[in-house]
Design goal:
Elements lengths: L3 E5 L12 H13 L4 E3 L12 H15 L4 E2 L8 H13 L5 E3 L9 H14 L4 E5 L1 H4 L5 H10 L3 E6 L4 H11 L7 E4 L5 H7 L3 E3 L7 H13 L2 H14 L10 H10 L17 H16 L2
Helix pairs in contact: 1-2, 2-3, 4-6, 6-7, 9-10
């Protein structure tokens, strides 16, 4: 199984906070032109909590139509309302996406047994592949390797996981445990700098947000690992390591990443959802200088 970079895309809005079709179309083409393997619209980077069901469906359809099979699409369909989650998931799958990415229930504390029950029910109601989204920093819950193993064993359409955790040991445990029974199970890391350890452990790559504004860098990194060019793997890995502080400038980093895209010539709006719409000039200048310093010093 070759390594992949799948971009958890930012959502482009117009000045009134509506999904901007043309702006999102430009982003999709930008990613295709620069060689990423896939996209996750409506993930955390995509500010999915602000969108109505209608706008989510509209955005997913845009991704399907515009990518025209050139990207593996795994849209986020998470919702605290399970029927809405199922409806959006089945809609996306009816359009031909690779699968859907779903968080466990958040806000309410849950156990491993309850998480198993949740995905067990979803797997029976959704007519396609499900990717578990493990993001304990946002949900307060960490899906164990054992629970993941049990779900993968019971349901062939539990296809993989995005493991957004700083704990590399957790990702490795999931990979090694589930691979005992499912060679087709895909585990993606959610941190850009976990790409190489993920691949070494037998994972599938990354769903990592720096690839929004540095897609060519990321696709080159994937090409290097798949071709065995380890000098290039090391060189690009060092660049990614030095870009990682960008995630800490703002809690919702999507605003900064949209402005980077504008800097690079995309004619899009940097509108970001409330209460993250304000970005200080000082923070943006810091982020911009950091990016420029790293990329100019390649």
């Amino acid at each position: 199984m070759k390594a992949k970079i799948i971009t958890p895309t930012v959502t482009i809005f117009d000045n009134d906070g509506n999904v901007d079709i043309e702006g999102n179309r430009l982003l999709i083409q930008h990613l295709i032109d620069n060689g990423v393997d896939g996209a996750v619209p409506l993930g955390s980077s995509g500010e999915f909590t602000a969108l109505s069901m209608y706008e989510k469906k509209k955005l997913i359809k845009l991704y399907v139509d515009e990518s025209n099979g050139k990207l593996d699409l795994i849209p986020g369909t998470s919702s605290l309302n399970i029927e809405e989650c199922v409806e959006l998931s089945n809609y996306a799958i009816s359009l031909g996406v690779k699968g859907v990415l779903i968080l466990p229930p958040f806000y309410y504390g849950i156990s491993q047994e309850e998480a198993f029950h949740y995905y067990d029910v979803l797997a029976q109601k959704i007519d396609g592949n499900i990717y578990i989204y493990n993001f304990s920093a946002r949900t307060g819950f960490d899906m164990s390797a054992k629970t993941t193993f049990n779900l993968a064993k019971k349901h062939k359409n539990i296809k993989g996981m995005k493991d957004s955790t700083a704990n590399l040991t957790h990702t490795k445990e999931v990979i090694l445990k589930v691979k005992e029974i499912r060679n087709d199970f895909e585990v993606y890391s959610g941190f850009d700098d976990h790409f190489i350890p993920n691949i070494i452990a037998g994972g599938s790559g990354c769903i990592a947000a720096i690839s929004n504004f540095e897609p060519k860098l990321w696709s080159s990194w994937v090409k290097a690992i798949n071709s065995g060019n380890f000098e290039e793997v090391k060189a690009i890995g060092n660049i990614i390591d030095r870009l990682m502080p960008l995630y800490s400038v703002e809690k919702n980093f999507s605003h900064i990443f949209k402005k980077f895209l504008i800097d690079d010539g995309l004619k899009i709006n940097d509108y970001t959802i409330f209460p993250f719409e304000e970005l200080s000039e000082q923070d943006y200048e810091f982020a911009k200088k950091l990016r420029n310093k790293v990329m100019d010093g390649r």
